[in-house]
Design brief:
This protein is α+β, with helices and mostly antiparallel strands. It has helices at 2-23, 31-40, 53-56, 88-104, 128-139, and strands at 46-50, 65-70, 79-84, 110-115, 118-123. It has one domain (28-139). Strand 4 (110-115) and strand 5 (118-123) form a beta hairpin. Residues 1-22 form the signal peptide.
Length: 141
């Protein structure tokens, strides 16, 4: 009887873990997935380009990858950043970085949204109602 307990327990742990991962939709989202979701929702996300170190400015550069898109409705050179992370703590740190910049200076304000492994940062000149459409498209993934 004792010989059966360990294999059964091991099977149960593996089975529950697999079911948990499958039902949580733990698939990583890529910045390209987000760009496509924005465009599918009829939102501007033009000229996607891979972010370079210069696009991060003085902020922490701990991301897996990032894409910058233009949002001409806000202004001709206004951008949004779509950044993926492997570590949620790094994502939270970057979101806090952008949010605190806006709290310290209205000129540096930007909209931010996080969903799963993605952080979206959008020029603060965008109207909140419009930003909420981007946030909704992100959260649909």
């Amino acid at each position: 009887m004792k010989k059966l307990i360990f294999p059964f327990t091991l099977f149960l742990v593996i089975f529950v873990s697999a079911c948990s991962n499958a039902s949580s939709g733990s698939k990583e989202i890529t910045p390209d997935d987000v760009v496509a979701a924005f465009q599918d929702a009829g939102l501007e996300a033009e000229n996607p380009t891979e972010m370079t170190k210069d696009d991060y400015g003085v902020g922490p550069m701990k991301s897996k990858e990032g894409v910058r898109v233009t949002v001409p409705q806000v202004c001709s050179d206004c951008n949004a950043r779509i950044i993926s992370y492997e570590d949620e703590a790094d994502l939270d740190e970057m979101k806090e970085y952008y949010d605190s910049m806006g709290e310290e200076s209205a000129m540096l304000f930007s909209w931010t949204a996080k969903h799963k492994n993605i952080l979206v940062q959008v020029n603060g000149d965008m109207e909140e109602e419009e930003f909420n459409k981007y946030k909704e498209a992100l959260e649909s993934l």
